[in-house]
Amino acid sequence: MSTIVEIDGTDWQINGALTYAGREHQGRRIEGLLLNSRMVQAVFDDTNPVTRRNWSYPDMGVWDPDRNTQEFCDMLPLYRAHGLLGVTVGMQGGGAMYYPEVFENYVNSAFLPDGSLKQPYLDRLAKIVDAADEQGMVVFVNYFYWKQQRFESEGAVRAAVENMTAFEAALDAGVSWGYYDQGYGCGETQTKCDWLERERETSFDDLSGFQTVPINWGINTPHKRAFLARLRDVTGSGLS
């Protein structure tokens, strides 16, 4: 199965059908929207051995990028059952932890300094695209994250883009919206949540957020449950 995404005027279509066809919620038109979530760390890795230990899974004591991607893929059917239609995956991820000694030094990038590609990242991305295809979900691929742009020249940036492209109150305004959930232990507070109010969880089952690595991709926190329950309510999606 190959998921086809199209835009008809201001409406999104997946495989020729309007998203959330016929759906309204409290007088707002949901039909044609593409509600999504920022999951930029789904292909995450860190090639700096000094900072890599920060991402170790509590239950195994080491970091495993393939486990991270597989567990994300395993959750896609459940996300879809809640009404989520799109996920954003980042080839340089996002801020996984903001303590300066980590944030300034970890290396998470699908690109080498000359703009060429790292095959393991492409393999993990391909796995995600295939898994999303099976669910009729859309994968938005984010190429760059400002902190990871360690390119040797402007030409290398252009090469990275060319190499990667060869790989192939929002509801009220009638536009789509993406969910963002950082997680505790990142070392920074943000507008809608104080991520400094407690330390990173010590149990894998309790790990919060979709961005602070390592990630529990399950619907295991009040934030995740609240978003996905609201998404299910708005979209009228049902769990079998």
Low-confidence stretches: none
State the total count of DSSP E strands: 9
Would you tell me the structural class of the helices and strands?
alpha/beta
Mean pLDDT score, rounded? 93
The oligomeric status of these chains comes to single chain
Describe the model.
This protein is α/β, with parallel strands linked by helices and 240 residues long. It has one domain (34-234). The protein has 6 helices and 9 strands, in the order ββββββααβααβαβα. The chain has a 4-stranded parallel sheet with strand order 8-7-6-9, with helices on one face. A 3-stranded antiparallel sheet has the order 1-2-3, with no helix packed on it. A two-stranded antiparallel ribbon has the order 4-5. Strand 2 (11-14) and strand 3 form a beta hairpin. The model has no long low-confidence stretch (mean pLDDT 93).
Kindly list the characteristics that best describe this protein.
240 residues, alpha/beta, four-stranded parallel beta sheet, 6 helices, globular
Task: Compose a concise summary of this entry.
By secondary structure, this protein is of the alpha/beta class.
